[in-house]
Amino acid sequence: MGILDEIGFSNVSVCGRAGVEIKEGCGPLERVGKMTIGKVRKFLYGFAKFLGDVNAVKQGTVGKRVRNRVIGKFTGRLFK
Fold it and tell me: Considering the entire predicted model, what is its pTM?
């Protein structure tokens, strides 16, 4: 009997939503769900963006990168 049982939340999962039973091996990878092409693509684009930021810091062109990202966001919203 845990703290959640004492306050009336016996059906709350530790790693899921309320009302979901606790399952064996409920780790972070099981919560991710199905690995899709879209998820992999999103991760890779985000990682490339991060590496670009690191590279800009190394080269000393952070201001230029920030300017270009702001202009890109504005242009993308303009055409949307």
Answer: 0.51
pLDDT value for 80: 86
Q: Among positive and negative, which fits the CA dihedral 54, 55, 59, 62?
A: negative
The total of structural domains in the chain comes to: 1
Residues 4-29: tens digit of each pLDDT: 566 565 554 555 555 555 555 555 55
Q: Is 78 left (phi over 0), alpha (psi -120 to 50) or beta?
A: alpha
d(CA 55, CA 66): 13
Domain range enclosing 72: 34-80
CA gyration radius, the chain: 21
